Each structure stands twice: as C-alpha cells, then as structure tokens.
Amino acid sequence: MTLALTNHLTTAFTIVPKPTSSTVLSSRPHRFYSTKTSNQERKDYDLQIESCQDILLEAASTKASDPDTVLQSLESLEKLMRQKRKMEGEAVAQDVLHHLGGKWRLIFTTGTKKTQDQFKTRINYFPLKAIQSFDTTKDPMEIQNAIYVGDFALVKFEGDFTFDLKKSKLEFSFDKISVFGITFNLGKGDAEKMGAASGLGSDSNVKNSEKNKKAFFNWISADSNIATARGGGGGIALWQRVQE
After folding, report:
1. Which helix (H) or strand (E) holds 193?
2. What is the pTM of this model?
3. pLDDT at 215
4. What's 42-241's CATH class?
C-alpha cells in the first residue's frame, strides 16, 4: 500500500494558517559528497539541490510556504537527485538509506493520481499526525506506518522493506495491522486490497500483489531534518524527522 495512510489522505484539506512566529529546524545539516566530488569542486546540481532543500525545510517547519512552490521544489529536487545518482553512483542512495532510519511525520503530499482525479485536488499540507518509521538496523529492515491522535496510534501497519541502491527504490509489504491497539495478521495482498477499497492506497498495488510484486516508492532524499519520496501511485511527498 504505497505511502500507506500517508500519501492518500490528502483529499479536501486546506493549508493551515501561517503561524505568527516560527523557527526553522537546526542549521543546514552536513551534506554528503562522494570522493568524486570534493567540497571545492561542488557541481552546479549540488548547489541547486541545497536550494530546493532549504525551501522544503522552511515548508516543513512552518507549513506556510506556497504549495505551488513546494511542489516545484519537490519535482526539481527529484530531477536533480536523479542526476546526482547518475553522476556519483550508488553512494548517493547509500547516504539516503543511512539517514532514513528513524521516525518521520508527513508534512505535504500531492496524493495518488486516483485521489487527485477523485477530489480534484493535488496539493495539500497534511493536517493529521501520520508517522512513518524505518528501522534499518534489522534484518530484514522494518517499516511502520500509522495515524495518531496524540501519542495513540489509531491504526498502524507493520512489515519489512528492501532498498535498491541502484534505483533508490524502497519496496515494502505489510503483514500486520493494529486497530485501536488490537493487532491482526495480514494475508498476502490484504493490505493492498484494504488500501484500494478505502481509497488510502493505489489500485496498482493490488495488481502488483497479484503478480507477486511489492508496493514501492522511489526515495528522493533524506537528511537530518527532511525526507522526500514519490510513491508507486504517482504521489510525491515531504516528511519531517520526528525529534525524540
């Protein structure tokens, strides 16, 4: 269920009012550069990547940036990171995976093409508390996706994932669901069918499951503060790291 319970609940929500005051998260995090690119020889795409990430960090911190600007920055970052991976190899995706471990709160998402067509909207700040967690220290690596009220998870999916360094592609499957704290095991394709039936997931995930293919999203970036990815259903999203 691509970007399960995150990428598809963006239906009719509007942007929250701009707060009277805000503080951008900590200073610009350390950037990774492969041995092919020294700090003195930083390529134009690195500077453009940093510019996009500055815009997205501001959006994540305030939820007040213009949504069209946020979307343009996401799409530009996606292209630039693709270029960076082509030029610098798997080390770029390895750095993304290194930063991916931890908890992330969904801030902004376009939703899938299905939800865009259904609700005639594509750009939204996400008003609910949706947390996606990754544990990259386990074997297999583990993923959780949940919607919270306060600190209580109303619904939570759990499973495992793999990460393709060549494509920066994360494939995952859920085998458990917890509803109001009660956990149930999920059979093959159950999570995908639940997502498609409720509108929370993509129909393509059901078809992929029938072909023994996992749900996926292409991870664009991840650093100390923000992360970005495009789901298999076509939506693109921005997360902010949950500070613990």
Report:
1. helix 190-198
2. 0.76
3. 86
4. mainly beta
